[in-house]
Amino acid sequence: MMDTIDLRSDTVTWPTDEMRQAIARAPVGDDIYGEDPTVNRLQAEAAEMLGKEAALLVSSGNQGNLIAVLTHCPRGTEVILGDKAHIFRYEAGGISAFGGVHPHTIPLEADGTMPLDAIRQAIREDDEHFPRTRLICLENTQGTMGGIPLTKAYTDDVAAIARENGLALHIDGARIFNAATALGISAADLIEQADSMTFCLSKGLCAPVGSILVGDKAFIKEAHRIRKALGGGMRQAGIIAAAGLISLRKMTKRLHKDHERARFIADSLRDVDDLHIKSVHTNFVFFELSPSAKLTPAELIHEAEAQYNVKLSLYPGYTHTFRIVTHYWITQSCAQIAAEVIRELLS
Predict the structure, then answer these.
(1) What CATH architecture does domain 254-346 belong to?
(2) Considering the chain, what percentage of its residues have pLDDT values greater than 70?
(3) Chain-wide mean pLDDT for the chain?
(4) What CATH number has the domain spanning 17-252?
(5) Residues ≥6 apart with Cβ < 8 Å to 320
(6) Are 321 and 286 in contact (CB under 8 A)?
(7) What does the pLDDT look like over 63-72, one tens digit per residue?
(8) C-alpha neighbours within 13 Å on the C-beta side of residue 218
(9) What is the mean pLDDT of residues 137-165?
């Protein structure tokens, strides 16, 4: 068990005992030479599970998204994405810094989508004054808006716009399996029309490190070169991939429990004075703490950890908005304790 009730993110998860044992026993080789059997198995299983031709192990979701954009977009071209997309807000401007790719942002709707007409209007006409549009990016689940799952119908509609205009569609699917679980469909069906997708092994899937980028063989071959250029090549990476295999085979099948516990926490806090539940989707709970609350946000964070070993945090960039994220190590008992702690501290 983890030694705290850590609700700051699903990135804080420790690997399971089974993962630790798999890491210790993993067959390894030199992945730069394509000779690590555990990495090769993980990539093959990921590609099959997501319905794509090939996959590539990368160090992080950030790196996976960066590789995808740089693979799709030559320097000086443009990507269309939401104004609250993780790629735009929380990845250090990497697509511009390292790829010279221009972001064209569209305000997101409350449901985490970009309006289809707004996407169409954002596509540049062929004019020497404009950057050339090359890519549309979606994020599923949409994290900044509350962990909202985007439907297959919407994803397919965006993919159709991309195809009609000779563009590619990339999905930042860091939590794609949470989206698929919430929607009751397979992740492969959900991303069927996308050209590429990145998903994280180290968020709700409990692995200690790593993400996977999927696409067709030609795309992954070029992505492999971009990964090398970014310093992302790894040698005996089977010790990472071994945990990732357990993530794929087992952790993807239990995410409904995290969703149930997020809803339990949200429901338990709805009647707390000076606390407003803004949203609960998948494994995310967003709540707003009123300026008139008994404790300031900083005091609530400090007291929850100091007195009860419960870790909370504000959502980055916000002064009174908290994000609670449930994960493998947040059992029903942990969820109940966390809710009781917040209620007691604010009563």
Answers:
(1) Alpha-Beta Complex (3.90)
(2) 100
(3) 97
(4) 3.40.640.10
(5) 288, 289, 290, 291, 297, 314
(6) yes
(7) 999 999 999 9
(8) 2
(9) 97
